[in-house]
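User: Hello, can you help with two protein structures?

Assistant: Certainly.
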Amino acid sequence: MKFKKSLLIGILGIIAIYAIILITFDVNIISEKINDFDFQYLPIIITLIPLTWGVLFLRWNLLLKNSDINIPLKDNFMIFISGFALGVTPGKVGELIKSQLLKNKFNISRSKTAPLVIVERFYDFFAIAIISLFGILVFEYSIYIFAILSLGISIFLIITSSEKLFLKFLKKIEKVKFLKNFSNELPKSFTIIQKSTRGKIFPLSIMLSVTFWFLDSIIAYLTLLSFGIDIIDYFVLMSIYTSSIILGVISFLPLGIGVVEGSLVGFLSLNGIEFHLATAVVVFIRFFTRWIGVMAGFIGLKFSNILSD
């Protein structure tokens, strides 16, 4: 019940923030802009959405197999999708629910699977760092995103290079409320993290992660085109979009709510898009790239019976 209540409060809070954003930006003008949406792009966007999920699922499945964890594909996919529901938590730490589901259904120790969720975030950030490096040529703020991510990735690699440093780091973060449930499992995860971020699995996971962000950015780009906006090049938009995502992650707010939207609107406005039109576009981008996934996650949770406890 506590789980359900916390999740409900979080969702209601996000809805409230969105309502404030829309009211502040003049909901009537934004509504008029939304009416300009060209639905001929919708079938392509809807097709790309599950394709992005498929890329991430392939990465997740490979990480499991790399750790000698083999479960039925159908069950694995349902558990994977369930993690999207808790992607609304700060830093997506709620996706650790996948580890709990694997333990409940297949009795797989959380010490084997919880670190893989952490590794997923590492690969996401590494991929965006690569995009930001190339983005420096087309988007001036990419240099700052690249610097932040490079620092974070370096710290992660240093921490995971030594078990002693790793355990010291865990002691620093074990006070985080959500992570308390995993406090007994994470100290055992050092070997799993090393195995999942070194060797042959590393370039393959990076390639899949970059592919995901390319596809996710295509959805954002098609959303711009659906509003008749063609003044921003795809590669510029990809840098703008991923930079906004990272700023949202740094804020440690659920889904970077408010920060992602605000920074994305700001960046689009700087590139010549009228403010209210930019706001309408961002609402659609976030719906396509994140909120549909969250809804699919709740369906997965329902079938996984995690909400029935």
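That covers the first. Now for the second protein you mentioned:
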Amino acid sequence: MAPLLNIEHLSISYGGIQAIKDVSIHLEQGEIVSVLGANGAGKSTLLQAVSGLVPISGGSVIFSSEVLNKVPAYEIVLKGISLSPEGRRVFPTLTVEENLNLGAYTRRKMRDEVRKAKDRVFSLFPILSERRKQLAGTLSGGEQQMLAIGRALMSTPRVLLLDEPSLGLAPILVKQIFDIIAEINAQGTSILLVEQNAHKALGIASRGYVLENGRIVASGPTSSLRSDEKIQEAYLGGAALRKKAAR
């Protein structure tokens, strides 16, 4: 059986610079798969390519057996893939509810479905229900991240793309966000997670990939990635852990 989302030999170029080079990643129904890597590794570009926001130079993005390479971004949302972007990118001068309504724009005529989606978002993020008439620009960083994820869920995606959901958040909020990501997955949404916090990402995912300079340099079950010395050194504070153990 084919994966729900299959990224095959993907390449992305900006002018003369190749940002993604022959990357292959797959996501099965019901999985959380994490993509790790330093700044500039190509992680956000990968998600933007899947979302139809940047042109594909080579390879394919296949969703539910359909090639998406030439499909416009709004149609990709309609087909069941939604992106919560890095940096939240909420609309600051619109209310929380107006931001959520924009997330359902492609389904705006399906009023019952939109209402159910909003009820789900408010169930996952009760604070958003309390702040529904508040301008998004006045929310805290954590609340804006919740709104960004909630907005992406308004299209009821089969695949949720999360780009750095913990970026800039206090540790207690990071835990809360990751608990909610696990709940979204438990409700049946498959998740491709781009995240610099390797501890959290590998704690929640079943499998992972490591991107360096636009290429996959390691992949496998999270248990094998955690035990890989090079990955420990680069992403999991391996040297610090060894120093602590040696004291």
